[in-house]
């Protein structure tokens, strides 16, 4: 590397000349690269979990002229709700089979306790999902009754919104009514 000295405003500064490597990098940066469309195959397990499932929802492409809760939008949400319901039911049946077919005999009491604790946690998770299945069924029924997508609070009735429904497909209250409900619950129960 060669060092050049130059005079600027009566001050001497040193500059390093570019080496071959940095010159190559500059040339590479200047040439436009071709963009490749890479299709990633995501292997989805049978049950993803609630957050992971909701993250897989493909956002609905809104049209400015499209009416809220049009047939196309209803079809989009029906597809989401039915897929979610199938995944939850599949996991419910797997858990039931796993519990029925499991007849392990443990020599140590602590091993048995650990095993039973795992089953207890799994059963609690499935109970929560059973309640979620009820909400999903209610939402599917609301789609056929034309109630889905609108706040069920009798004093409100406004649109819930496409993005909120994609984040929480079983939402039955608009964000304002849900916030008020949470504040009331917090005041009552602490």
Global morphology: elongated
Strand content: 5-15%
Main sheet specs: 2 strands, antiparallel
Helix fraction, binned, reads 55-70%
Kindly state the number of beta strands: 2
* Radius of gyration based on Cα positions: 29 Å
Q: What is the count of helical runs?
A: 6
Unreliable stretches: 10-46
Mean pLDDT: 79
How do the helices and strands follow one another from N- to C-terminus?
EEHHHHHH
Distance between the termini: 71 Å
Strand order of the largest sheet: 1-2
Helix-strand makeup class: mainly alpha
Summarize it:
This protein is mostly helical and 190 residues long. It has helices at residues 20-30, 50-55, 71-101, 109-145, 162-167, 175-189; strands at residues 3-8, 11-16. Among the domains are: 78-100 and 122-148; 149-190, no CATH class.
Description:
The chain starts with a strand and ends with a helix. Among the domains are: 78-100 and 122-148; 149-190, no CATH class. With 190 residues, the chain is mainly alpha-helical. Helices cover 56% and strands 6% of the residues. It contains six helices and two strands, in the order ββαααααα. The chain has a two-stranded antiparallel ribbon. Residues 10-46 have low confidence and may be disordered. A hairpin with a 2-residue loop joins strand 1 and strand 2.
């Amino acid at each position: 590397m060669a060092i050049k000295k130059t005079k600027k405003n009566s001050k001497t500064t040193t500059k390093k000349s570019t080496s071959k490597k940095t010159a190559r990098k500059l040339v590479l940066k200047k040439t436009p690269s071709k963009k490749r469309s890479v299709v990633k195959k995501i292997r989805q397990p049978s049950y993803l979990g609630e957050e992971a499932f909701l993250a897989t929802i493909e956002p609905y492409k809104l049209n400015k002229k499209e009416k809220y809760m049009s047939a196309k939008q209803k079809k989009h949400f029906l597809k989401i709700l039915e897929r979610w319901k199938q995944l939850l039911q599949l996991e419910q049946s797997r858990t039931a089979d796993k519990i029925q077919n499991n007849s392990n005999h443990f020599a140590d009491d602590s091993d048995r306790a650990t095993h039973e604790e795992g089953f207890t946690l799994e059963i609690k998770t499935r109970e929560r999902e059973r309640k979620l299945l009820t909400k999903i069924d209610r939402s599917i029924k609301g789609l056929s009754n034309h109630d889905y997508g609108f706040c069920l609070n009798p004093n409100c009735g406004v649109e819930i919104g496409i993005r909120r429904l994609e984040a929480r497909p079983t939402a039955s209250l608009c964000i304002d009514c849900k916030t008020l409900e949470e504040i009331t619950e917090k005041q009552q129960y602490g």
